[in-house]
Specification:
- It is a single chain.
- By secondary structure, this protein is mainly alpha-helical.
- It has helices at residues 2-20, 29-49, 60-92.
């Protein structure tokens, strides 16, 4: 069940990150989900390093770290995606 939650959280974080980043992102949904999963992992690690991983109630600080990490990862991966696969698609057309 842990993998299912990781995919769901990664999907939600990735979609929110895509919505926050200005402009159009061209990376596919599966890649966005993977970036969201990586953002959740990185955000949890940052929160643990700053001793705010477990707080009373909702862990807002941990969720903010996860979202910021997902935004950065989605932006970088989308730029790399367009630099590699985007050129191939433009050359075919």
């Amino acid at each position: 069940m842990g993998w299912l939650w990781a995919i769901i959280v990664g999907f939600v974080l990735g979609v929110i990150a895509k919505a926050v980043i200005p402009g159009k992102q061209h990376s596919p949904l599966w890649l966005t989900t993977i970036c969201g999963i990586l953002g959740a992992i990185a955000g949890n690690a940052i929160a643990r390093a700053l001793n705010v991983a477990e707080t009373r109630g909702i862990d807002w600080s941990r969720h903010i770290f996860q979202l910021v990490a997902a935004i950065i990862i989605v932006a970088v991966v989308d730029a790399l995606y367009m630099a590699t696969l985007g050129k191939r698609k433009r050359q075919r057309a």
